[in-house]
From TrEMBL:
It is found in: Nucleus. Keywords: Exosome, Nucleus, Ribonucleoprotein, Ribosomal protein, rRNA processing. GO terms for biological process: nuclear mRNA surveillance; poly(A)-dependent snoRNA 3'-end processing; rRNA catabolic process; rRNA processing; U4 snRNA 3'-end processing. Its main location: nucleus. Residues 1-32 are annotated as: Disordered. PANTHER family: EXOSOME COMPLEX COMPONENT, EXOSOME COMPLEX COMPONENT RRP46. It comes from Gonapodya prolifera (strain JEL478) (Monoblepharis prolifera). InterPro entries: ExoRNase_PH_dom1, PNPase/RNase_PH_dom_sf, Ribosomal_Su5_D2-typ_SF, RNase_PH. This is Ribosomal protein S5 domain 2-like protein. Belongs to the RNase PH family. Residues 13-133 form the Exoribonuclease phosphorolytic domain. GO terms for cellular component: cytoplasmic exosome (RNase complex); nuclear exosome (RNase complex); nucleolus; ribosome.
C-alpha cells in the first residue's frame, strides 16, 4: 500500500524547489524561494546608517522584518524573525561593516509548509545578490 500526501507526493518525494535572485528592482539585493506551493520573497537593504541606540561599534547590526500574507506580524512571526536574525547573524561577516545596519525583509507570498526553509534560502540569496560577504 502506497501512502500519498494531499499534494500527491509519496513520503520519499521532495517538494519541487525553485529559486531566483534580483527579482526586486528597488532593493540592494533580493531573492525568491519556492518549495511546492510555498513562496517567499526577501529584500536586503544596506549596509546603511543605523540608529545610535542600535549601533554596534565592532560590527553591523542585522535586522529581520517578517511580513505575513495578511495583517500585522504576530507571536509566531516574531519568533520567525528572531530565529532568522540569529541564524543569519552567524552567516554574515558583520565585522566588515561596523556601525551600519543590514535590513532583511521577508514577504510571505503563500504558505503551504516549509516556510522557514524558504525564508532562510530567500534571505541568503538576497544577501548574496546585495554583495554582503558571508
Amino acid at each position: 500500500m502506497s501512502i500519498t500526501r494531499p499534494d500527491g507526493r509519496t513520503p520519499s518525494q521532495l517538494r519541487p524547489i525553485t529559486m531566483g535572485q534580483g527579482v526586486l528592482s528597488r532593493a540592494d539585493g533580493s531573492g525568491q524561494a519556492r518549495a511546492g506551493e510555498t513562496e517567499v520573497l526577501a529584500a536586503v537593504y544596506g549596509p546603511t546608517e543605523v540608529k545610535i541606540r542600535d549601533e554596534k561599534l565592532d560590527r553591523a547590526t542585522l535586522e529581520v522584518k517578517w511580513k505575513p500574507i495578511i495583517g500585522p506580524p504576530g507571536i509566531v512571526e516574531t519568533s520567525y524573525e528572531r530565529f532568522l536574525r540569529e541564524s543569519l547573524d552567524s552567516a554574515v561577516i558583520t565585522s566588515l561593516h561596523p556601525r551600519t545596519l543590514i535590513s532583511i525583509t521577508i514577504q510571505v507570498i503563500n504558505d503551504d509548509g516549509s516556510i522557514l526553509s524558504c525564508a532562510f534560502n530567500a534571505a541568503l540569496l538576497a544577501l548574496l545578490d546585495a554583495g554582503i560577504p558571508l
